Amino acid sequence: MTAALSVSQLVKTWKGLFGPAQHALRGLTLSVPKGAAFGLIGPNGAGKTTFIKVLLGVVRPTSGDVTVLGGDPQDTAVRARIGYLPERMHLPAALRGRDFLRSVSTLKSLSPSDTELDRLLERVGLRTGSQRVGTFSKGMRQRLGLAAAMLGQPELLILDEPTDGIDPVGRVEVRALLLEEKKRGATILLNSHLLSETERICDRIGVLEHGQLRLEGTLDDVRRAASRWVVRFEGEVTAEDAGFTRAEAGWSYEGDVEGLNQALDTARVRGLRVIAVTPQTRDLEAVLADSLISRETN
Amino acid sequence: MRQLFRVAFDLLLEAARRKWFLGLFGAITLVLLVLGFSLQLDVVDGAIAGSKLFGSLLFDDIVSAHQVMGGLYMATAYVSFYGGAFFLAIACSDFAPELLAPGRIEHLLSLPVSRWQLLFGTYLGVVALAALGVLYGAGGLTVLLGVKTGVWNVKLLIGSGVGWVGFCALYAVMLTSNFFVRSAALSGALGVVTLILGVIASFRESIAVAMTAGFGRELFSWAMLPIPRLGTLATVSARLAASEPIEGELVGRLLAGCFIFSAALLSVAAYRFERKDF
What we know:
- The complex is a heterodimer.
- Chain A is of the alpha/beta class.
- Chain A has two domains: 3-222, Rossmann fold, CATH 3.40.50.300; 226-297, Alpha-Beta Plaits (2-Layer Sandwich), CATH 3.30.70.
- Chain A is 35% helix and 28% strand.
- In chain A, the strands form three sheets. Chain A has a six-stranded mixed β-sheet with strand order 5-6-7-3-8-9, with helices on both faces. A four-stranded antiparallel β-sheet of chain A has the order 11-12-10-13, covered by helices on one side.
- In chain A, helix 3 crosses helix 4.
- Chain A is elongated, with a radius of gyration of 23 Å.
- By secondary structure, chain B is of the alpha+beta class.
- In chain B, a hairpin with a 2-residue loop joins strand 2 and strand 3 (56-57).
- Chain B starts with a helix and ends with a helix.
- At the A-B interface, helix 2 and helix 3 of A face helix 1 and helix 5 of B.
């Protein structure tokens, strides 16, 4: 499948004038296929925002290769096909909502009609195109930023905390919007602290920590990585000897598939009969927490 | 180019809704209205036979309309140069910091716009705003006095236009400083400091002579060399407005100096902007 974006051995080091150099990205390699909804998760300071800025050409990498939509993000023709919502959108307070969209349209070389702009504003839940941005609430600003990102139906949508400041009902609306964009064929790169939101929108996940990709794959792969399995045996048995630990619904095994099969073989040799083997998927919060804990213990 | 003009246009839109500029244009309008309603001039054969401001006599004798208008135009040119430059240095100080604000600059840079377009669009927007102020104030006064005296003279507009070039040099300093330290306060202060240095630079030869010969004098002379002679430019602008004779070569040198100074600073800003991460 063609990649919407790919980075290879990406390094970004911020050199301080007096202090030590800060390594934001340390040899990051990642590829996101076209049409995917990719969720980027990780703790604060993991390098997520720096990575996004590199993809947009706002930050230049210290070393490594970056390809976005088949080209260099420094190329304006490539950026014309991207929609971006920054983490903390700073909007010109004196402009009206529609003025702002008109301005972004011109900068994107688009010429939408007022009706089209109003329709877009309505789509993101804003019915106040003539209201000045300075009077907008945080959630309204975020919605306007989202509308600006969606202008011209971009092939790639890069969204940094898109629902920050939006109320729960609004979040549901935004989620529906993003799913519509995904259905349209747009590739979505989502950076959100709301892991449940990432889970609902994204089909691929990457866990970034200390500028490195700790885990990457489909949502199911990531949830099952370093898996836990629940095994039920026939009758009242003891399976500790085979490497299982007692769990609420039977016996559990933690490890990879290879290790599980060896444990099952050992159990069978000892006369135990397997009734069911169930993979235990975890939510992203647990995945992220495990990833960070394992990093610390290593 | 469409993008460059859009950046400039957005800046003008933003300015149009700010109290600073509403105040500026309101004040100019008020002065023009007050003069329009309270100044009475009786002009006979190019001479002011009678004049009243708020009902009080301005001149006891008959005076030449050109002479009166020359004096008024000169005063207006000086006020618009120094007052305008000071006001605009403060009022325009936060346009560049706003452009470079976190959350806005990343968004702008993610759009298919070149960095130089953002830089020059901002510069263009601010100098266009200053030009509009000059055109409105000087143009309004020219029309007002032209209607009242029947003597039409566009020298005030030309003189104010020359003064406007001085502000273009000031704003180049203000804009460039933001690519090193993003600060509206610093930007405004640098604008005012450059204005003062520009006046000092106009007297650099006479000041240098008054200094003790040696390293200090040499340093002063060299330090003042690149600074545009804004004090001289103000005088030239006022004399042009008052239709007094001016050496064309001097005007050319002053304007070229401002142009080279602005171009050099904007090149530094462009170089810095192109290499800066946000």
